[in-house]
Design goal:
With 314 residues, this protein is α+β, with helices and mostly antiparallel strands. The chain is built from nine helices and 19 strands. 27% of the residues lie in helices and 27% in strands. The strands form five sheets. Strands 1, 2, 3, 4, 5, 15 and 18 form a seven-stranded mixed β-sheet that branches. The chain has a four-stranded antiparallel β-sheet with strand order 9-10-8-13. The protein has a three-stranded antiparallel β-sheet with strand order 14-7-16. Residues 13-298 form the TauD/TfdA-like domain.
Amino acid sequence: MTAVITVPDGAGPDWLRAHREAVRSVVTRTGAVVVRGLPIVDDGSFAAACHAVTDTTVREREPFAPREPRPGAGIAHSSAAWPPDQPMCMHHEGSYGREVPGLMLFGCLVAPASGGAIALADGAAVLRDLPPTLVDRFAREGWRLIRNHNGFIGVGWQDAYGVTELDALADHCRAEDIELTLTPDGTVRTSRRRPAVVAHPETGEPVWFNQIAFLNEWTMEPAVREYLVAEFGPEGLPYTTTYGNGDPLDEATVALINDVYAAHTVREPLRAGDLSIVDNLRTAHSRDPYTGDREVVVAFAEPLVPVPAVPTAA
């Protein structure tokens, strides 16, 4: 079960600020905690709760799904646009970046009628249960993410990278160690290699930290993948992942990674006012399908540059 801390009746951000160290110690120990009973009813009260937990918040970078900044609060974003009847694969937010959020905060303004939990999986436990040969290869090579922006499908490069001119995109790619290619048909293609196994910044423990399975072509709906391959070719998919050296992943390997995530998934049903604090390096997250209305706002905090780690053989 997910760790849950229930605040005293009438407690608010001041209580959370006074107990910050104790709450954060639970996050370090377990990877995530739900603080329950806070008066989180809108963007402003969510932002106040976030500031009680952390001093450093940041904006999202290089999104894959539409997510809008919320007006008035300064740090809040909408949750990622995702069909309510479809599950979301486990992932560590922004793990394809050179710098990543170390902490994720989710505030539940409106709880769904059913489902819709923020599901969590321990990256250290996932690492231990993946085949050693697979872990060793990814630890040595890292993983590669390829994105194609052709103006027809997926997020446009202007929205994905937050720039409007190709010269600015080139500058961004150089700064972020991203390979940029402009194809003859006008497609903007980017490729970057990132570590797949990193050392946790506080404990030093190796953890599985990536979006290898979530952003791979084999996680797409089969009919969608077949259409995209037929329309744009296997090299023109809006995104996919490979081994660090560029070798493709097969469907069975991607399914295996998702199966191991599923075996380590825990969830706590959402209640209005819940503040979920997630150690993004240690803990992958996803979202369950749901019915009814659901309004969850998100903040990104404590950016850091992940340090690659090589797991110790058992």
